[in-house]
Amino acid sequence: MKTADKEALKRKTNAKISRPEFFNIAISVDCVIFGYAKKELQVLLIKSNRKEFSELYSLPGDLVRPDEDLDTAPYRVLKEKTGMDDVFLEQVQAFGAIDRHPSGRVITIAYYSLIDILHHKLQLSDNDLHWHSVKNINQLAFDHKLILDTCIHKLKEQIMDHPLVFNLLPEKFSLRELQDVYEAIINITLDRRNFRKMISLKKWLLDLNELEINTPRRPGKLYKLKKEYSSFNGQKKK
Amino acid sequence: MKTADKEALKRKTNAKISRPEFFNIAISVDCVIFGYAKKELQVLLIKSNRKEFSELYSLPGDLVRPDEDLDTAPYRVLKEKTGMDDVFLEQVQAFGAIDRHPSGRVITIAYYSLIDILHHKLQLSDNDLHWHSVKNINQLAFDHKLILDTCIHKLKEQIMDHPLVFNLLPEKFSLRELQDVYEAIINITLDRRNFRKMISLKKWLLDLNELEINTPRRPGKLYKLKKEYSSFNGQKKK
DNA sequence: TCAAAAGTGTTGACTTTACACCCATGA
DNA sequence: TCATGGGTGTAAAGTCAACACTTTTGA
Fold it and tell me: pLDDT averaged over consecutive 10-residue blocks of chain B (238 residues)?
């Protein structure tokens, strides 16, 4: 290509990027915030405030601000909605069908997060924010059911290879609780001995030499995740 | 929340979505188009036409049009640049650091694609478009090196579980060629017998009972991917 | 003392890895 | 006939899945 052609192309590109119609797409982030309670995987939903979706729930999200990195937007949403930071949060996928949003063109980038529902810092900011068992969710506003299903799928794929589910539990937990979480996510009951063998091979856990207290039956031993595997302060580890 | 509050929130949201500064973010797609030649994984790059990145290469991409689905944009780019459709193409990740683009706020969504460099339909549309061996790429314009590395990582993760690499080869190929492609991607030499056993366990291939022709040595048997595993005409299969 | 959950090992099936020789072809 | 790569099987190690009994505790 000759230099003159390149200059023409550059002008063309710059013209395109500054033409107003190419800024007619808004960008949002939507957060699939998972928790664990009542032996079931839960997700945080908010009552939709749009008349098109009255009576439907939707995922918490917000538009990305022009002055924030894409990846910080979901942390902001999470902090605003739950008061939590230092949480596991990972990008999943962008969703951008033309008609996914009734009030205009909005491309959204989905993130999923895992938090401990009983964490002392957790404070839902909104009366319309509630935990829902994922099993009971049939319909959501926008394309949020598709987003949720995509995130559940990714979660299932990752939990065997990465130390993620610990983010759903308090710092100290028993192997029984841990197994319950795994079973809730993959929806399969596991053999207790094989599960313990699998977990112990990962070398993720520290035996605290403590026992559960106030259990109705024989208490189990307590463990915690080794510090080097915690999901925040950096990236997730293998 | 009371109804009046909800109405207020709705107005607030609608106001935000239509305030011009929230459309100040442009959306692009960037395509990491992989090919295979000279026993190495190749990627299609274009000479950057921006003075900030003179002499650097970049990934082919374009702004998403307001009237196209997000996922069709990379197909359009691919068709424009290579003349190819019916190709494997999958979304990888969105990249959205504030300063990733020198001329303004652009969030990009990366896709990766696998094509047969020797396909008869392949026709590079631009004299500045060329194949580069991924081994030799140290620096790219924008954050494209990061995008490329992310896509290579995803490719490596997927090739053992999904019938993807066949998209890099002509319809008929020998097991030797197939093994070469795998080795080029994962950068490890494999044992021939174990490789063949692994591939035959997947049941992806159809034995054509044909032999290579015009080989300098003993010709190998030819295979092709079973139709039900081809990546286009629907989603990738397990 | 009873009920309930905690804790713990072994076996067989299968998968993965390492490894070497003969065969068919083109030159 | 020779050089080159094509084609093939087995044994050992490791991983995965199935399976039952004893122990500890609270009630």
Answer: 45 50 84 97 91 89 96 98 96 97 95 97 91 97 98 97 96 97 97 96 95 93 96 53
Q: Which of B1, B24, B127 sits opposite A1 (nearest CB)?
A: B127
Set of chain B residues whose Cβ sits within 8 Å of the Cβ of A105: 66
Helix (H) or strand (E) holding A8: helix A3-18
Q: Is A211 on the interface with B (CB under 8 A)?
A: no
Instruction: With respect to residue B235, please indicate whether it lies within any of the assigned structural domains.
Output: no
Domain that holds residue A223: 171-229
State pLDDT tens for residues A180-229.
999 999 999 999 999 999 999 999 999 999 999 999 999 999 999 999 99
How many distinct structural domains can be found in chain B?
A: 2
Structure tokens at A145: 């059911």
CATH code, domain carrying A85: 3.90.79.10
Q: How many residue contacts between A and B have a Cβ separation below 8 Å?
A: 108
- Among B100, B105, B63, B102, which Cα is nearest to B80's? B63
What is the secondary structure of B10-52 as a DSSP string? Answer: HHHHHHHHHSGGGG--EEEEEEEEEEEETTEEEEEEEE--SGG
Which residue minimizes Cα–C1' distance to D24? A218
B102 touches strand C (CB under 7 A): no
Q: Do B10 and A94 touch (CB under 8 A)?
A: no
pLDDT digits (tens, 9 = 90+) for B118-152: 999 999 988 899 999 999 999 999 999 999 999 99
Task: Indicate if CB(B193) is under 7 A from strand C.
Answer: yes
Domain at A176, CATH number = 1.10.10.10
pTM for the whole structure: 0.90
Q: What are phi and psi of A148, to 5 degrees?
A: -60, -45
